[in-house]
Every structure is written in structure tokens, then in C-alpha cells.
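Quick one - first record:
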Amino acid sequence: MIRSFALLYAFAFFMALSVDQGDAVLAANAVLQKFIMIAAYFLDGLATAAEQLAGWAVGARKRKAFDRALKLTALWSFAMAALLTVVFALFGHMIVDLLTTNEGVRALSRLYLAWVIVTPLLGVLAYQMDGVYIGATWSGTMRNMMLVSLAVYIAAYYALFPLMGNHGLWLAISLFLGLRGLTLLAICRRRAAETFG
């Protein structure tokens, strides 16, 4: 529950800080946030597969099955993230045009489009690892790494926004997405060793 509230807070924080930058930036960031939601629909499906496979392996006490689940879901998750990145790079401007008819918002959205093009690759580990940790019932570790990532995100915003403006906000949330996955991956092997003995 704490992890979920922290995730909701991260995106609410992003939108609240977008409001402070005026209506045009708020609208552009809201348009671009839809790209993150599109990616989430696909990557969450693979995270669900990771949850089921990891959960079964932990319940059956089969370390080899767990390791195979990690590799298999990582392979498919990264393949999907790469495909989404290519789609966003090739057709992102068209997707923006479908989401808004305001030319000013379209222009601003294109200015920051590069951030969401790379978002699937930056966030893919977070989705996959969330699935693994939920399936393995390692919720305490998942919560802790979420809080660490959230703290870094907030600190990064206050350090980067004065220097980079809205690009700083996008960099901060990109760091948040990437750090969530990397911290969970870094601890995964140790948690697996503790679980399987």
C-alpha cells in the first residue's frame, strides 16, 4: 500500500509542478504523460507474467525456475520496451497531434518528446521487477526501494529544475523510473538467495 501511494504521489508531484509552469506546459506534460500510460499498458502485462512465474517458482521452491522466469520476462520486457521506443520515435509527433489540436501545446509537446521516447527503456526494469517482487512476496524491499527512488526524484527535481526548467522535471522523473528498477535488480539476487536458501 505504501509503495502504491508513493507511486501515485510521484506522478501527482509531477503534475503539480507542471501546474506551476503555466497552462501550456501543464497541457504539454499531460499529453506526454499519456505516452507513459501507453507504455505501462504493455509493460504491465509482462510484469503480470513475471509475477505469476516468479510466484510459482518461489511457492514450488525451484530456484532454477525462478532464474529462468527472470531471464525470460526480462527478455520480453526489454523487447517490448525497445519496440515502444521505436514507435514513439517514429510516430510520437503523430500521437501528439491525435491527443491535442492546440498548436502551442503541440509545439511544446514536441520540445519535450525525447523524454517520453526513452521512457519505456528507462522504466522497463521497474515494471518487470515490480512483478517479480509482488510474485515473490518481497513487498517490504519493494516499498523501501520505492521510497529511496522517490527521495532521489524529489531531490533531483529541486537540483535540476532551477537549471533546466521543465527539462529538469522530466530528467528527475526519468531518474525515478530508472532508479526504481536498478535498485530492485541490485537486491534481487540477495533476496533470492535468502528465499531459496
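second record:
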Amino acid sequence: MHRQALFPRLLVVIDALTVTAAFVASYYLRRLIPHMGFRPLGPIDHYLWILLATIPIWWFLLFLNGAYTTKVERPLAIVRVALVVGIGGLLTLALLLFLIKFETFNRSLLVLFVAVETAMLAVTRIAFASWVALSRRSGRTARHALVVTADDPESRREAGLLLERMRRNPSDGVAPIGVLTFGPAWEKKDLEGLAINGGVEKLADLLHQAVVDEVYFVVPPAMLEQVSDYLKLCEELGVECKVLARLYRPTLARPYLEVSYDMPFFSFAPTPLYVGQRYAKSVFDFFGALALLAVFALPMALIAILVKLTSRGPVLFRQERGGLHGRRFCMNKFRTMVVGAENLQAGLAGRNQMSGPVFKLAKDPRVTPIGGWLRRTSIDELPQIMNVLKGDMSLVGPRPLPLSESAAIEGPLRRRFSMKPGMTGLWQASGRSSVDFHDWMRLDLEYVDNWSLRLDAQILLRTVIAVLTGKGAH
């Protein structure tokens, strides 16, 4: 096994030791803090069992945040990951303790543990990254790379750029050792100061005679068929190879390679959601919705009674909306309008206060007395928790629109449908109904193009603030 491949495995062990050390340190540190009304601590062995759940949770969260790769991250990025993992771990552990009803666990110890662990995780990982970077700069663990390129100007430019970036980032652990070319020999004897070793027909000899860990092919799309024989050669000799993808240069889509039905496909994702990230968002949605349901189950029952007592009709308003890639689903809300409100909308079209193909009216005469309050507080949205649990919606995402409005959105704006609709989103967190249609769509696309779990957490926090202050509520 190459030494670089050991680094992620070492990190797995280091992280487990860090979590364990942080828990023990937190326990004894907590004992030094005056009681101040906190529940007294029991023996340490009363709490050690939680490490059986904590260590896998931290491994999982670190994996989802891309923390187990051979890439050396900057200190600021490491601190950011440590904070995200700490917050996610605290919420997950709190939910776990709630679900198993372990009420005797000391909450102050849990909070102190997460704070100490986050700091220790950041320090140990920064120290480890510094050691790895130093080791790679020394060349002791560098992967030797051979660059194969063509004689057209674009390929020469990109191959030169690749070599320049390899040398500028020695902590990545890749050291270029030579260049081979397709086609006739170049007049120049080097590329970016690196010797040109001859034509690509010398590849087999070089792979046998020199230490080569990776081969980078930088060629135009028209030459991909010629590259195939050399890819097979690298495969037979056990040498990793990479081909610069110039089939299409996306402006927004994220390119990645995936294997589908045992066939390799170069894919272009309209959102930054890869398999692991999709799973992370689904897990976050499911457990977040469960937590919301546990908190709001009783208030929702009381609100259902209020809706039923104050106006005729069903408690819930159920309407087909456009979901992921246009899938239809039935969205739930507490009913805030009179029965048959949809049939009355045509008569109010002239009073629409929202540009574009959507309808918004501040003082809508169809709203019931209790409905106005539910809308201002956004409590009418709570039944959508069930939509999140079913998988039709997410906690955070573009707002789901009625089918007639979804169908009217055309062109690049339809990229907003490439993610599941959410109970809240950038639109709601940025002023809700006070934001016009064009800004609304811009915010939806901004969310789609820049999604991360951290952004979801920020939007949830901003939504709470917007709801509490009543900003933009109609």
C-alpha cells in the first residue's frame, strides 16, 4: 500500500482516540466546575457507554464532510469541518438520548464534551495535516506523475497549467517526473522546465524502468480513441491513470465519473449533491423532521382543533405541487382559507402583488381569521413535516409551487426543480412575501448552485429569526 493511502486510515484511528480523550478530559473538567445548579456527576463508567455511539457518529459525520481523503486541507477548512461535525454530533447525540429516554445523562457533560472534542479535533487534525504536508514537500511520500499530451496549442497550454499547479501545491503529494507526446516530436525539449521524454510509444518502457504512480492524459476529445490502448497498458501494469475531460465544459453543473449498470459514465450534476451528500441530506431531513414532530405534535393537535372550530371545512389543505424534477406530490398545510378558495382566485387576479406566474395577495379576503395568524407565524406549514418524512420534501429547499405555477416556469429557472422542495428556503429566510418573483427565483438558484449542510443550517436559523420577527409575512 502506498504511504499516502495510509493517511486517511491513520486519521480514522486518530479521530477515535481524540473523541475518547475529549470525553475523559471533559468528565474530569466537569468535576472541577462548581455545581451551579447542574445535576451532580455519577461515576465515569456510568457514561462511557456513550462512546460506543459517539465514535461511529463522528466517523460518519467526518466522512460525509469529505474529511477522509488524501488531500491536505487548510487550517481554516479543518476548523470549519470540526465545527460542523461538532454541531451535527451534538444534535444527533441529543436526539439519540431523547429517543432512548435516557434522562439521567448529564446534559452539561454532553455540551462540554462536544465543545472540548471540537477544539481537540481541530488541533489534532491541523497538526496531522502539517505533518503530512511537510512529509510530502520533502518528497518522501510523493506520487510520481507522468504527463502525456498532444501537440495542439490547447493541449500544450493545459498540460503546462497542470504541471505548474502540481509544483505550486507540493502538499498535494504529486511530483511530475516527465512528459510524453502524441504525434510528431516537438521542437521544444521541455514543457514548463520538465524534460520531454519522447513520444507516447515510450510509455511501456518508462512504466517498466521508472517509478511512475500516475499517468495524466491531456489530449483533445478527438484523440480519446487513441488513448484507449495506453489506458489498457496502464491497467495491465497496475498504474493509475487520469484523462482530462474536455467533452463539455459546464458553466454550473458539477462533472463527475460514476459507474452505472457496470458501465462508466461521465456525469454532469446540476447540483452539488453527490451520493454521500444526498444521503447526508436525507438523514438530516429524516431525523430533523422526527425531532420537529416530537416537539410540535401537541401544538399541532391544538391548532387542528382551532381550525376546525373557527371555520367550516377540513383541518388540512392538501394540494398537488411540483416536486423534484417535476414529480407531483400532495402537500399538506393547515387550512388558512375558506373552502373553495382556489375557485375564487381568478376573480382576484387583478390584485396580484407578485410579478411572474405566481399569485400573492397581502390582504387576501379568502383567508379565515385564524388563518391570518397561522400564516403570519408560518405555523400553517407544520403539517409538511409529514411530507419530509415521506421523502417528497426536504427541510430546506426551493418552495414547492402549485402545478399551474410550476408549469409556467421555463428555461434556466427550471433548475430550481433539480432539488427537493423545502419547508423553508433562502426565499423565506430573506423576507418571504416581501421578495419579488425574480429575486425569489434568483435565491432558489443560488441555493441549488451552492448547497451544503452548513447552508441548510444557516437557512433554518435565519428562518426562525424571520418567523419570530414577522419579516415579510403575509
